[in-house]
Amino acid sequence: MADDLDRLLDEVERRLCHRRGGGGGGGSQEQPAAAKEGRSAKVLMSAGSSEEDLDDIIEEICNDSSFAKTPPKLKSNSASLTPERNSVVVQAHGKRCCPVYLGGSLSPSGIGTNISKRACDRLRCTACDFRVSLFNDYVWDQSCDYLFFRNNMPELSKLRAKMIKKKGARAYACQCSWRSIDELTDLQTEQQLRWVCGKHGE
After folding, report:
1. Average pLDDT by consecutive 10-residue portion of the chain (202 residues)?
2. Cα distance between residue 60 and residue 172, in whole Å
3. What is the pLDDT, as a whole number, of residue 46?
4. Phi/psi-derived region of residue 129, left when phi > 0, alpha when psi is between -120 and 50, beta in every other case
């Protein structure tokens, strides 16, 4: 931590000397080095008493003209996106389902709302902190238990031992809970499940 603090102080000193000195002669190279040692010791000793000085220094660094004033441009995978489509993508970023729906493989997936009823495909369990995996056209065997999922999630090769093929169904599981769903279902009706929407578009 002391090294990080020294690096920060060196950066502050460099910027202040550059701003105040304006790039003087050959003797000015030695002065900042000597001043650096004295200043870093002084700042370390009086850090609690000179908060205003530190605030002024930080504000001066932030207002430095060498820092870019314009916000960075967003990178896009497709250069042909129109501004309208691009703004829709930005708006959808980080949204959550409300309410959260589970559904079979025939149910549309995405951000679920009261108007647009879609099965959430970004579920996360708050009990085991695992992402909920979903498998289209499968249901879980009746013999599944907690230890099976605890030991085998998220390895599909091990989970297949207790998966049964069923068209239109979807098998959901985390490390502590599992469900087989055939049709669109509001997650609130499944009180024992501790699943939430983990945000879309990440």
Report:
1. 77 68 48 49 48 67 56 48 40 75 92 90 92 94 94 92 95 94 91 89 62
2. 54
3. 47
4. left
* Contact indicator for 176, 127 with CB cutoff of 8 Å: yes
Give the CA count within 13 Å in the CB-facing half-sphere of 72. Answer: 4
Model pLDDT, residue 79: 42
pLDDT at residue number 125: 93
Cα separation values, 178 from 24, 25, 69, 193, 198, Å: 71, 73, 50, 8, 17
Q: How far apart are CA 81 and CA 141, in angstroms?
A: 45
> Which segments of 54-119 are extended strands (E)?
101-102
Whole-angstrom distance, CA of residue 109 vs CA of residue 83: 25
> What is the torsional sign of CA 160, 163, 168, 173?
negative
Distance CA(198)–CA(195), nearest Å, equals 9
Per-residue model confidence (pLDDT) at position 160: 94
